[in-house]
Automatic annotation (TrEMBL):
It catalyses: ITP + H2O = IMP + diphosphate + H(+); XTP + H2O = XMP + diphosphate + H(+); dITP + H2O = dIMP + diphosphate + H(+). This is dITP/XTP pyrophosphatase. Pyrophosphatase that catalyzes the hydrolysis of nucleoside triphosphates to their monophosphate derivatives, with a high preference for the non-canonical purine nucleotides XTP (xanthosine triphosphate), dITP (deoxyinosine triphosphate) and ITP. Seems to function as a house-cleaning enzyme that removes non-canonical purine nucleotides from the nucleotide pool, thus preventing their incorporation into DNA/RNA and avoiding chromosomal lesions. GO terms for biological process: nucleotide metabolic process; purine nucleoside triphosphate catabolic process. Belongs to the HAM1 NTPase family. It is an enzyme of class 3 (hydrolase). Pfam families: Ham1p_like. The active site is at D63. It comes from Methanobrevibacter curvatus. It comes from the Archaea. Binds 1 Mg(2+) ion per subunit. The keyword Transferase does not apply. The lineage of its organism: Archaea, Methanobacteriati, Methanobacteriota, Methanomada group, Methanobacteria. One of its GO terms (molecular function) is ribonucleoside triphosphate phosphatase activity.
């Protein structure tokens, strides 16, 4: 049993489908924790450590962000805030007349258990910022994140298609590989 500390139902749905492939049961707990300013790794470590101290059980937390090369990695660790304030239309406005549209989604899983230091697992997926929003699937920046190999945005891919290679899948796979050896 893995306890996933999140209030984001989209993350839970994606993670449940991935964990199911490994016959690992997932329990979602909306505990909430302060997200410090820092890297995704800093946020994941601190969140996992906090949740473990409160629950006295092993947990995972996940922090993710969209990193746009032409914007020096922005929105990065501020992705959630930027999604709430600027939204996809704001990102498209920032990217007007920008030729280099390279971007990547990153996901960091933070794992912690009582009396051990947190461990982190990074997952990435490279793509481009589309010229316009496409698709209604997924959430947040998904309709902007274009995958050349698929010729679609994340917003046009079903959850099953996205779960084959997403940043969250990559970080969860890395975690599961490590966790399965415990």
């Amino acid at each position: 049993m893995i306890r996933f500390i999140t209030g984001n139902k989209h993350k839970v749905e994606e993670a449940e489908k991935i964990f199911k492939n490994f016959n690992i049961e997932l329990e979602a707990i909306d505990l909430g924790y302060d997200e410090l300013q820092g890297t995704l790794e800093d946020v994941a470590k601190a969140g996992a450590k906090y949740a473990t101290s409160k629950l006295k059980k092993s947990v995972i937390v996940e922090d993710a962000g969209l990193f746009i090369k032409a914007l020096n990695g922005f929105p990065g660790t501020y992705s959630s805030y930027v999604q709430e304030t600027l939204g996809n239309k704001g990102i498209l406005k920032l990217m007007e007349n920008v030729a280099d549209r390279e971007a990547e989604f990153r996901s960091v899983i933070g794992y912690c258990a009582p009396n051990i230091e947190p461990k982190i697992f990074l997952g990435r997926v490279k793509g481009q910022i589309a010229l316009e929003e496409k698709g209604t699937l997924g959430f947040a920046f998904d309709p902007l994140f274009y995958i050349e190999e698929k010729d679609k945005t994340f917003g046009e891919l079903s959850t099953e298609e996205k779960n084959q290679f997403s940043h969250r899948k990559n970080s969860l796979d890395s975690f599961i590989k490590w966790y399965s050896q415990l």
